[in-house]
TrEMBL record, chain B:
Residues 112-164 form the RNA polymerase sigma factor 70 region 4 type domain. The lineage of its organism: Bacteria, Pseudomonadati, Pseudomonadota, Gammaproteobacteria, Enterobacterales. InterPro entries: RNA_pol_sigma-70-like, RNA_pol_sigma-70_dom, RNA_pol_sigma70_ECF_CS, RNA_pol_sigma70_r2, RNA_pol_sigma70_r4_t2, RNA_pol_sigma_r2, RNA_pol_sigma_r3/r4-like, WH-like_DNA-bd_sf. CDD domains: Sigma70_r4. PROSITE patterns: SIGMA70_ECF. It comes from Rahnella contaminans. Belongs to the sigma-70 factor family. ECF subfamily. It comes from the Bacteria. One of its GO terms (biological process) is DNA-templated transcription initiation. This is RNA polymerase sigma factor. Residues 16-81 form the RNA polymerase sigma-70 region domain.
Length: 323, 172
């Protein structure tokens, strides 16, 4: 085809494409810019070719970029899956496969799994793409991996994620959905906590992008070492992540110069019943690493190192009070 | 001297259509397992033959039609995959943000055009172009993502752009 184009037109398109690639690089010297202008002025066909470039660019820039990019990539992966499916069934026919069922279950509608922890329990799972998902105490999340995306839906509690490089040719986005919005991992390690009416994100490595449920246009990228709490419509202040933020994934609470009240509130999450702290000792300062599996022994340590004692009405009603 | 009278393109097409339409439809139905898809794709195949203006040069009508029909099928699967991915992505979108039905249809059509346009390109070339033009990433970032040099990214961009320009001219 292409027979209607003259050689000069064809050459003009080629050079226009090269100019476009140069101008899009964002590093154009004044000399280059001048050369490009000269090239445009030189010939009617050059201007014609450049108009074609501009209309192509116009078409692309009128689209919602991120959405379109992801859709096009997902579509490509799906066609690849169709291709792979054909290959795979061939392998099975030849008797070389052995994991047909395993493969089929993850390739169909998407692997739907509920991950849950009870109070006091901490669990770490390896996901199909080798990413690591840890659930803190009293947490629940759905894991939905499809051919086109990796999605964790956090219903309650707190999760920590260390994403792995996707094993697909075109990496699927890694998303975490909470009641307040959608987080997109940009190759990362991060912690998400679902609270009443708000989500807290702490980024330990690289970055995470947040899209609010009610204000999707104003996204925010949180970079390494930063934390933010957000509702469905607004972001709170971005703060620094305190050291030891991910220590719970190793089954310990690691704190440095925390208020006793904050430590108690944290320990309370791992216990049935009610653990509280008398206001008169709330501001005592404390540092250390405590096992989360056995919060009773942590309370005992506290009572030995601080001027406090543990008042136990019942096993489910415990209060830290002054000596 | 007797000269061969050239068969007119339209006449050749009509002859091909009436002698092979039913056969092609059956072949497609066997391949696709759906009578209505087979109907549509048979029409598409003949449309391509007609616009390609090649009906009069065909020596082996069946194998020729199969070749064209296979290309039509590949495009059909790709369109389906795109539509599924598009619905997936829409499903993730918050309700309030959902575009109107007309906007949705329009965007899907544009995405289909772009998908088709970029189809013949290698994966890295395609990625470089999309990451630059849709995600708005800089060349150094794209280079890192694709594990290539910045100068390769620029080459990919030029290649993809030229390909798109030629494609848009050929396909109106």
């Amino acid at each position: 085809m292409n027979t209607s184009l003259t050689d000069n037109q064809r050459l003009s398109l080629k050079i226009a494409a090269q100019w476009f690639a140069t101008l899009c690089s964002g590093e154009v010297t004044p000399q280059q810019n001048q050369k490009w202008q000269q090239w445009l002025a030189q010939d009617e066909d050059h201007r014609w070719a450049w108009q074609r470039v501009e209309s192509l660019q116009g078409q692309l820039h009128n689209m919602p970029g991120k959405f379109s990019y992801q859709t096009l990539n997902h579509a490509r992966q799906q066609s690849d899956v169709t291709r792979r499916r054909v290959l795979k069934s061939l392998v099975v026919l030849l008797g070389l496969g052995g994991t047909w069922e395993a493969w089929q279950s993850s390739a169909g509608q998407g692997l739907l799994a509920d991950a849950r922890t009870s109070t006091g329990e901490i669990k770490t799972l390896r996901l199909p793409d080798n990413s690591q998902l840890s659930l803190n105490t009293a947490s629940a999340a759905d894991i939905r991996f499809t051919d086109t995306l990796r999605l964790i839906r956090l219903h309650q509690g707190e999760i920590s994620i260390i994403t792995a490089r996707d094993n697909q040719p075109v990496p699927r986005p890694f998303l975490v959905e909470t009641q307040q919005g959608m987080l997109r991992a940009l190759g990362t390690e991060f912690i998400v906590r679902q609270q009443d009416g708000a989500t807290t994100l702490k980024v330990l490595k690289h970055a995470v992008e947040i899209t609010l449920r009610d204000r999707p246009a104003g996204g925010l990228q949180i970079s390494e070492g930063h934390a933010v709490r957000f509702t469905g419509s607004a972001f709170g202040d971005v703060t620094a992540v305190t050291g030891g933020a991910g220590s719970w994934t190793h089954g310990v609470l690691s704190v440095s110069d925390w208020r006793l009240a904050d430590v108690i509130a944290e320990l309370d999450r791992y216990r049935h019943g009610h653990l509280s702290c008398d206001p008169s000792v709330a501001d005592l300062r404390i540092s250390g690493t405590f096992p989360l599996k056995d919060t009773d022994s942590v309370l005992e340590i506290l009572s030995r190192t601080l001027p406090v004692k543990i008042q136990t009405a019942t096993r489910y009603w415990v209060k830290v009070v002054p000596v | 001297m007797s000269a061969n009278v050239a068969v007119s393109p339209v006449r050749a097409f009509e002859a091909l259509y009436s002698s092979h339409h039913r056969w092609l439809k059956n072949w497609l139905q066997f391949k696709l397992g759906s009578a209505s898809d087979a109907d549509d794709l048979a029409q598409d195949t003949f449309m391509r033959v007609l616009t390609g203006n090649t009906a009069q040069e065909i020596r082996e009508p069946k194998s020729f039609l199969c070749t064209v029909a296979r290309r039509v099928m590949v495009d059909f699967f790709r369109r389906n995959a795109l539509e599924r991915a598009y619905l997936d992505m829409l499903a993730l979108m918050p309700e309030e943000q959902m575009p109107s039905p007309e906007q949705r249809q329009c965007l899907l059509e544009t995405l289909q055009q772009i998908d088709t346009m970029l189809d013949g390109l290698g994966e890295k070339v395609r990625q470089a172009f999309l990451l630059s033009q849709l995600e708005g990433l800089t060349y150094p970032v794209i280079a890192e993502r694709l594990n290539v040099s910045v100068s390769s990214v620029k080459k990919y961009m030029a290649k993809a752009t030229e390909h798109c320009l030629l494609f848009s001219i050929e396909h109106g």
